[in-house]
Specification:
36% of the residues lie in helices and 20% in strands. By secondary structure, it is of the alpha+beta class. A 5-stranded antiparallel β-sheet has the order 2-5-6-7-8, with helices on one face. A 3-stranded antiparallel β-sheet has the order 1-3-4, covered by helices on one side.
């Protein structure tokens, strides 16, 4: 019985390929997945690069606070905190991907009550900007703004188009 079945099967020619319809359906499904996944992936990349800039800004803000508290009552320049934040004397990361704008701005902490007073009023104390030579991040900027009238007083504002800053 098995031998007869084997002979019967070997005499027939079986098509072992895919039909055109099956191939078109697979290509369509892969195309839809790519169309959905690509914008999501690019958004994740932009968010990761912005998070990198926010990490540099956070480290710098911590160093600025530390210096200002240590020199209680005396204005402390942002650029004095560069070494503590792991930045070069010029305010850049090493290797150069991010640079700090506003290093001459100062922060003063009152000895009596611990009140912070930035030299910039309610404007940005400093801005972390993507280096123009690093084309993948040159359009990203993160500003640190200190405004004692808001809650919380210190806020990060992000720009991924180089123009408009929004809370991040």
């Amino acid at each position: 019985m098995v031998i007869r079945l084997a002979r019967l099967m070997s005499n027939r020619q079986w098509n072992r390929g895919f039909t055109l319809i099956e191939l078109l359906i697979v290509i369509l499904i892969v195309g839809i997945l790519a169309a959905v996944a690509t914008p999501l992936y690019l958004g994740y990349i932009r968010d990761a690069k912005t998070a990198e800039a926010k990490a540099v800004a956070g480290a710098l803000w911590t160093a600025v606070q530390s210096n200002a508290i240590g020199t209680c009552g005396v204005a402390s320049a942002v650029q004095d905190a560069f070494p503590k934040a792991g930045l070069t004397a010029g305010g850049a990361t090493n290797p150069v991907r991010w640079t700090v704008i506003g290093g001459a701005n100062t922060l003063t902490v009152a000895c009596a009550d611990g009140t912070y007073t930035p030299s910039t009023g309610n404007n940005a104390l400093f801005t972390v900007s993507g280096d123009p030579k690093a084309t993948d991040i040159s359009f990203i900027q993160v500003q640190f703004q200190y405004d004692s009238t808001t809650n919380p007083p210190g806020q990060l504002k992000c720009s991924t188009d180089g123009k408009t800053f929004v809370a991040c």
